Amino acid sequence: MLKASVIGATGYAGVELCRILLTHPQANIHRLSSVSFTGKAISEVYPALRGLCDERLVSEDEAIDGADVVFASLPAGLSEPIARKCLQAGALFIDLGADFRLHDPDTYESWYQKKYEDPELHGQAVYALPELFREEIEGARLIGNPGCYPTSVALGLAPALKGGLIGSEDLIIDAKSGATGAGRGLSQTTHFCECNEGFAPYKVACHRHTPEIEQTLSILAGEPAAVTFVPHLLPVSRGIVSTIYAKLKGGASLPEVRQRYLDFYESAPFVRVLPEGEVSNLRNVRCSNYCDISLHLDAHTGRLIVVSAIDNMVKGAAGQAVQNMNIALGLDETAGLLFVPPAI
Ligand SMILES: NC(=O)C1=CN([C@@H]2O[C@H](COP(=O)(O)OP(=O)(O)OC[C@H]3O[C@@H](n4cnc5c(N)ncnc54)[C@H](OP(=O)(O)O)[C@@H]3O)[C@@H](O)[C@H]2O)C=CC1
Ligand SMILES: CC(=O)N[C@@H](CCC(=O)OP(=O)(O)O)C(=O)O
Hints:
Helices cover about 30% and strands about 20% of the residues. The chain is an alpha/beta fold.
């Protein structure tokens, strides 16, 4: 059995990793780390885990020691030195944050106000969206797990962009996320009374996932992509729905577009291209590693409308991280991830 440690296990994405690893057939939880709760059991922080995972929280160094795989689920800007230690210790390192996602150091610096300190390390990092970059992930030792919104957008657009069905300029992304996307820390915007029964966009056309989205879409299109990305805070706990608008080129019909999507995702176990007439709904992917994609055509404007739904903490974070571990280490991609979304 692989020994897997989680650094930042007390955060929302970290505790989702614990939940998934607990039933993984080829990995065991080795150690869990925290700064604020060191010495306590994870089940004291999250009582849902009582009797299932009563592991004591330890320091970062103790978590790395003896691990085969280390997941870091920390705020941006903290992962470089941890990655270095893991590689030196011979462990696979998977970062759930943003520190190894952007290829261009200047872009990272301008959006995250921090420099890449260790360029050699970044040279080894793989941006790991399995459905798009599976071959690069196989055998990788340092993985940058994609952001939640960028995952939903890239999966939603990849077949159309790669197949030249749409242009890469003037893409409009209207995305909504549940409040767990903001993490466990308290803030006024995610405070119950502030977000319940309210609904609004935030960081309009200036969210830090914009360059990550454009990076992937540019690779897919083979030319620079430009997006208008507007995220919204949805007053639910979990789930992301991205509704994406793109001008169709060449007049493909909806059944033809859908067939391209089905072909593209033929060997992708976690992407479900919905039948014509159905609409993706975050309810159907909650607590699962699935991405549901529905396709629609606005005959009036000739726009393709793609609706892509994921669970932000599973396919958007912990589930995708475990999928990446499986691929990197040559395990079955679906190991530990075939849990069924609750129907209601
Ligand atoms: N939530 C989501 O849906 C998604 C999150 N992510 C990314 O995953 C990462 C974690 O996010 P999330 O779980 O939501 O965040 P949380 O705020 O819920 O958790 C943050 C974790 O980081 C630890 N931490 C905070 N500050 C420090 C510090 N200075 N040094 C060491 N540890 C620290 C906390 O540990 P403690 O307080 O116990 O010391 C806690 O375990 C982020 O990079 C986020 O962007 C990515 C995709 C989706
Ligand atoms: C609802 C909500 O606030 N969502 C978060 C999601 C970002 C996130 O998790 O981003 P990184 O993984 O790139 O840090 C946000 O918009 O900042």
